[in-house]
Each structure stands twice: as C-alpha cells, then as structure tokens.
Amino acid sequence: MCPTVPGPQPAAPVRSFLAARRRIGTSRRYAILVPSLGALLLAAACSSSSRQGGERSSAPLGVLTLDGPTFGAHALAPAQCRVGQREQFLGFDFLDSQAGIVARLVVDPATGPVVRVFRSAAPFDSTVLFHRSDCRVFHFSLDETGWRINRIDQLRVSLEVDCSLPSGDRIAGKAEDPGCL
User: Fold this and answer.
1) In 51-110, where do the E strands start and end?
2) Domain, as residue range, for 27
3) Between the chain's N and C termini, which has fewer beta carbons within 10 Å?
4) Same domain, yes or no, for 34 and 77?
5) Structurally, how many domains does the chain consist of?
6) Rounded to two decimals, what is the model's pTM?
7) Do 107 and 161 belong together in one domain?
C-alpha cells in the first residue's frame, strides 16, 4: 500500500485574500505611523525642555556688579551662559550682550580658579583677573546634567563672588544657570 499524497488544495476564496491584504496594508501603515509619532513626541519634549544655555532666553541668570577704573560701573545681568568646553577650558562664560561684557570662570589646574572679565567685542584689549585670594567670597559649581549635545556637555553652573583688587576694580554678585551649554 502506498501512502496517499494529498492533492492540490482548493483555491482560497477571493474575499479572504483581500482581507489578508488589507490587514498587511494596515500593519504597514502602523509600522510607519508609530515610529513617526514617537519621533514627533521626542522632538517636542526636547524643544520644550528647561533652559539649556545658548541664546534661548533673555531672562537674566543673576546680577554681577562691576566697578572700577577698567570698565567703569556696570550691573551685569547675563542672559547667556556658555560652557568653556567650546573653547577648550574648564569653566564657563556669563555673557551680558547689552553691556558687551563677559564674566568668565576658568579653573586652572596649576593656579586655581579665576574670574576674568573682558569686553566681548575686544577680548584681549581690556581684561581684569580676580583670583580667589583677591576675594572675600568666591564660590562656584560645575555639575554635569547628564546631557551631551554635539559633543558638548551641558553643565549646571553657579558663581558667587565678592572680589576687590588694589587697582580699585571690584566685582560682586551671584549668577547661575541650570542648563549651561
């Protein structure tokens, strides 16, 4: 006795073929729709996140009072913060674009932290350096937020100073940025 080989199966009805095709088409649409929706939500979440440095907000980050023969009297209200990693140093810049003056904290491994104040338009013409030894108050913080954008680490930074130089130049005040980039 020979085993029986099943013969050809009857053709599937046309309706079940069209229904299967519709199901495949629907799943393909969802395969495109779901990732697109996810990307859209991610973009919205990233764009609505808290301050992350740069030119996103004009709200002042604090007030630093500058007085003396080099720059005169200014109440700096920096609205921008930039991490020093952009220019290859450990520290950050607080920029007051209205006054055109930058207060830069640099942490030098050999000499320690220093605040350098200069004009943004001519950074090497007039400058004042405030070393920690020139200050009654010199507190700063540099903490990583865990975000890295275009190979630049975002930092949570703060600076509080009260410094005077024998030349008569003085800086005092406090500024901070939770998302300096």
Assistant:
1) 62-67, 74-76, 80-83, 91-96, 101-108
2) 12-48
3) N
4) no
5) 2
6) 0.69
7) yes
